[in-house]
Amino acid sequence: MHEHITIIPSDKLILLDGMGLHCRFAAPATLHALQWHEGAGHLEFTDGKPNQPLTGEADFARHVQPFVTVWQAEKARLDAEAAQAESEAEAARAAAEAAYNSLDATRARKLAEIAAAYESVLAYVIAPEGKDNLAAALAVADFTAEDPEGLAFIRAKLAARKAELEAQTRAAGSVDAVQAVEVRFAV
User: Fold this and answer.
1) Which residues neighbour 130 within 8 Å (Cβ) at sequence distance 6 or greater?
2) pTM of the model
3) 77-108: burial string, b at 16+ Cβ within 10 Å, e else
């Protein structure tokens, strides 16, 4: 038996031991509230009638238990709804994780890593760190003037390594094999 029960029909509110739920239930039109605390309680009315005392198991069974049953059914419904939502959220998380860890997604991330590393290495070779855009442009011009074939050679060598890494990645038949492709460029 619950120790503390309050029912407020106008608000469709049932509180059991401090936990309130809004429920659908029928109640007499003149019932303002039902209070039950530690084995006794009363009915409060809106029509000026005095409070009606409630005592013992018979009063509990007649006046209080129907509301307890409504509250328990609503609590069970809400718990089931929450469990279903959690189950669906977990399934969505699992699906998202599976998609992220799929061979195609892992391969796409590795190809992006290769492209970014290629661009980074090419930029570094042409204009080492610390140079702004103008300085980098001047460095490329100087490099091209001093060794016109050198820049083309470096680009071709880096592009060949990039193509090699991309081919390894595309040929990899498993996520582990894709992840094992080591993205390195000789500088």
Assistant:
1) none
2) 0.62
3) eeeeeeeeeeeeeeeeeeeeeeeeeeeeebbe
